[in-house]
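FORM 7B: Structural annotation worksheet

SECTION A. Query
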Amino acid sequence: MLSHSRCFTRTLGRSLSALTQGSNVLGRRTVSGLSACIHVAYKNSHPTCNPRPSVFQIRYFKTSTAFRNEVVTVNTPAFAESVTEGDVRWEKAVGDTVAEDEVVCEIETDKTSVQVPSPAAGVIEALLVPDGGRVEGGTPLFTLRKGAAAAKAADAPAPEAPKAEAPAAAAPAAEAPAPPPPPAAAVGPIPTSLPPVPPVPGQALHAKPVSSVKPTVAPAAPPAHTDTSAKGARSEHRVKMNRMRLRIAQRLKEAQNTCAMLTTFNEVDMSNIQEMRKAHKDAFVKKHGIKLGFMSAFVKAAAHALTDQPSVNAVIDDTTKEIVYRDYVDISVAVATPKGLVVPVIRGVETMNFADIERTINELGEKARKNELAVEDMDGGTFTISNGGVFGSMFGTPIINPPQSAILGMHGIFDRPVAIGGKVEIRPMMYVALTYDHRLVDGREAVTFLRKIKAVVEDPRVLLLDM
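SECTION B. Predicted structure
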């Protein structure tokens, strides 16, 4: 009996010593003290205890509070080679909770806008640049405390559990509780009549239909004194021009000061292209998954005409006083966005068909609407097409997009009477305009170019015959 008690005491002491080792160590004994001394052997009439060795599992815990509350500084991302600086427009403020990859600010450059996302979830501690401030690549923008949002959510009190709903019969009593009885100590005159009982909503005998209840009209308030001098007051407000708008204004003015711009006009009968689109639009969508529009016809016609008239596709190098002729056709398509006019480039149009052009236009237009156009999407371009017809324009003279030498302006389609075979007919007509740099392009080349576009759009079979 004494041996059993000694073994039990020894095993229990080992367990307690293991459990008290350090504040960050958790000891767990996997073999109980009672079972450690089950096997007892007797030798020379002296009982001995051969306890089973105790096994402990040690676990170390490291709190992640320091890592969770780490404060990081987010810098301005690197710009493209042609962009050196931009203006900051903040989407978040100090103390706002942001998720990972959520946009914190937007940097407006000369050509596009660069979004700066949050590198991790957390809370914004400080904005290091004021709204509208100018930054360069690598400039510190804001500081972020990582994981603070999760800590706030954990510290927030848990919402109370909804209470069980009372029976329907007790609902009217809960809505209109009876007034508490007067205290017993108060003594007053005995009332001669019972007090009026408030109506109970649940009593159906005295309820009236809603239609029979007449709303009470409140008495009209006397008219307030109005200052008649304020009726004719005129106000104005000022808004700072963003960098993209400033850059557009600068480039357009440079084009006017540099190029000798001249515009020639023509009109296009859209009957054949409308019939072709109507006849094949369903099959086109079924095969290519995109709609067939008029823009692809004009883009392909422009590529055909630029190949035929290479001077319209060329550019003057003012530094070397040379004319640079391009053997490729990259057409810029003007797209209007809320922040300004952008011109993404469709590259290698001379090798594309209608489906390729429509697919590329849709992709670039979607990126422009989502403000995801990169500088590389707008660099280059040998010719520009501007479609003002989508806004209802009937006639206009576009301005050259430097350093290009010409631009084609499309306008709206309107039914007009035209002479066809000596007879007057109503046809869907569109005015087109070509503005060109007269320093490089002569009138003959410009008129011939525009007539090529007219011929291809009116009869797309010209492309198959290479005429």
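SECTION C. Observations
The two ends are 117 Å apart (CA to CA). The chain has eleven helices and 22 strands.

SECTION D. Sign-off
Analyst initials: ____
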